[in-house]
Amino acid sequence: MAYQNIETLSWIGDQHGWLRMIDQTLLPAELCEIDCRHTETVWEAIKKLRVRGAPAIGIAAAYGVCIGLQTLPSNVDLVTFQTRLNEVVDYLASSRPTAVNLFWALNRMKAKAESLYDLKDVAEINEDLFSEAKAIHEEDRRICRSIGKFGQELLRDGDTFLTHCNAGGLATADYGTALAVFFAATEMGKTVKVYADETRPLLQGSRLTAWELMQRGIDVTLICDSMAAMVMKQGKINGVVVGADRIAANGDTANKIGTYSVAISAKTHKIPFYVAAPVSTFDLTLTDGNGIPIEERDSEEICCGFGKRTAPQGVHVYNPAFDVTPAEFITGIITEHGVISPVNRENIAKIVGA
Ligand code: MRU
Q: Which residue among 15, 125, 201, 329 is least crowded, i.e. fewest CB within 10 A of its CB?
């Protein structure tokens, strides 16, 4: 399969343009893009996981702010502008609760505007906000490359790693976080094999990770989530690397539901377990993972996934979309500034809190 250089997110046109994104709910059957010209469309795309993965959600939200401000007349007064900005930021922030990159990007956009209120007129502030959204997008590309560079050093030629969910190019501006480690190792000439958990209930592992790895010519084997412990016991796995949605100040890490079970299995089998994430995924306001808000999603995702009923109507369902892996299960956190290991408050503060 030939690798196509696909853009997860792209901005079309000038400041008055719109956001284009791959509709990830259709993959791998269809590679289709949708255009978002209204804040509501961006909100819906985040909520419904058309765009998903912590960094990608942040980028989409930053552009969503620009789209939300396009509804204002060009001669709008500053107070009306501020009111609309706050309204758009609050609205986009209500789309999904767990990935902190969403709030990080929205706060960055808001802080940018606030720094300019006394210095520039509304038209200039709008221009600077558009530049800020583009900067968030571009920075993420560089961050992913840097994570790949540091992460690949942890892989030996011939290693087989396991990953859970999708922390690839589809979840970021390009190249990914966890998957960046495999891409960079391959570019360094190492041979890498990957086991991808399918990632129930929405199958980001089988629909997205397996697809991305195959696109890039990386040897990937798909397994059901329940098989991870077994393949570790069989000695097939040298290491695990996953992404993250929010990392507390002590290193407790929220990621896709099932990650915690993978970490427990890895520890049991003495297999290193790495998290790959940009600094924007750390939430140093939280002392530990107990404070991380965990999104609960619709029961239909479990009972009627992809339109096929697989559970009786009316059954009680619990559907948390993320879990928290305690820091003591994590061998290292791969960031754009280097690898944090051992994972503890002091080492995190040194790299993230500076
Ligand atoms: O519900 P999703 O698909 O948005 O969950 C995504 C994950 O859990 C990823 O592992 C995480 O956001 C890191 S993406 C670089």
A: 15
Q: How far is CA 106 from CA 212, 223, 236, 274, 298, in A?
A: 28, 36, 42, 28, 25
Residues 6 or more apart whose Cβ sits within 8 Å of residue 351: 279, 335, 337, 338, 340
- Is 174 annotated in the active site? no
In a domain, 258, yes or no: yes
Ligand 1 within 6 A of CB of 244: yes
Regarding whether 272 and 164 lie in a shared domain, the answer is yes
Q: For atom 15 of ligand 1, which residue has the closest CA?
A: 167
Q: pTM here?
A: 0.97
Pairing status of strand 239-242 against strand 219-223: unpaired
Identify the active-site residue in 140, 197, 225, 245.
245
**Cα–Cα–Cα angle for 266, 321, 33, rounded to 5 degrees:** 110
Question: Residue 286 sits in which domain range?
Answer: 154-351
Query: How many structural domains are present in the chain?
Result: 2
Distance between CA 223 and CA 183 in Å, rounded? 20
- 55 Cβ below 6 A of ligand 1: yes
Beta 239-242 vs 273-276: how paired, if at all? parallel
Domain identity same for 20 and 75: yes
Span 296-338, pLDDT tens digits: 999 999 999 999 999 999 999 999 999 999 999 999 999 999 9
Give the SS3 label for residue 92. helix
Is 296 a member of any domain? yes
What's the CATH number where 243 sits? 3.40.50.10470
53 lines ligand 1 (CB under 6 A): yes
In a domain, 4, yes or no: no
130-177 pLDDT per residue, tens: 999 999 999 999 999 999 999 999 999 999 999 999 999 999 999 999
